[in-house]
Amino acid sequence: MTELSHWYEQHIQAWTRFSTGQTTLWFWNTELGWATVHPLLEQYGWEYRGCNIWDKGKSHIAGNVNSKTLRKFPQTTEVCVQYVKPQKFTFAYEEVSMQDWLRLEWLRTGLPLYKTNEACQVANAATRKYFTACHLWYFPPAEMFERFSAYANTYGIPEGRPYFSLDGQRPILVNEWEAMRPIFHLPFGITNVWNVQQLRSKERERKLGKVTHFNQKPIELMNLIVNSSSKQGDVVWEPFGGLGTASLSAIFTGRRAFCAEIMDEVYKDLTKRFDRECNNRIM
User: What is the mean pLDDT of residues 133-148?
Assistant: First the structure.
């Protein structure tokens, strides 16, 4: 499995280079494959958000299990792991996290930390939520950022203004702040265990009576991750296309899709599927 990390590294380098503060990476693999590549993703600055389990159901094995030979429980799962690329900031010529930068910028104003509550117009929460140095920190919503930024630039040491600025000329605008956080919409009732049967319906691509691609993903799951982590007009990049299910999901939900597939025969099947599915939608 060591070779897997080496193989993925050039791809992860490119993903890292072209990602933004709103990028979400969905990493599909086996449990062991993910465990092997995870340290490499962390090395390149990707932050783990959660491991989602696709439970394909018992029909996935359909009784074809030789437990005496395998000596383990039959496997009916695959993982889809969520990563984001946290925004980095510069403070005193050093790269710091968003959490550290917010606290350092406030301390630079000369105002005591308890004043953040007054700045955010809350009784007793801002210091703990947005300016803490511990694990209880979380991202300040745009409304709160606007409040404490305005407060800091009004009451902070005049010589240090502007505070909460990227260019030293003006504070970060609200829309700019919102763009520094990955999009995520949590559908009601969905957990990290996805009980979706392996494809056996007409959605399953076949050629000459045989399954075209053994690892074809359900459009239902692709719709879930595309809708939860992007908005209409956003770009969805599918580097290992297979049959292009994520790209089809992106197109059908109003996103822009880019897809690649290195295997010539699979690529031909992918393009045929695209032509058929897109023509059916038009008709």
Answer: 94
Write the class of the CATH domain 202-283: alpha beta
CA–CA separation, 263 vs 215, rounded Å?
14
Q: Are 137 and 113 in contact (CB under 8 A)?
A: no
CATH number for the region 1-85+190-198 comes to 3.40.50.150
CA distance 198 to 111: 58
In this prediction, residue 154 has a pLDDT band, given cuts at 50, 70 and 90, of very high
Note the pTM of the prediction, 2 decimals: 0.89
pLDDT > 80? residue 92: yes
Q: Which of 190, 228, 193, 217 is nearest to 54 (CA)?
A: 193
What is the pLDDT at residue 66?
A: 64
Measuring CA to CA, which residue among 229, 226, 216 is closest to residue 183? Answer: 229
d(CA 89, CA 166): 8
Beta strands in 212-259 (DSSP E): 235-238, 256-259
In the prediction, which pLDDT does 62 show? 63
Contacts of residue 59, Cβ cutoff 8 Å, sequence gap at least 6: 197, 198, 200
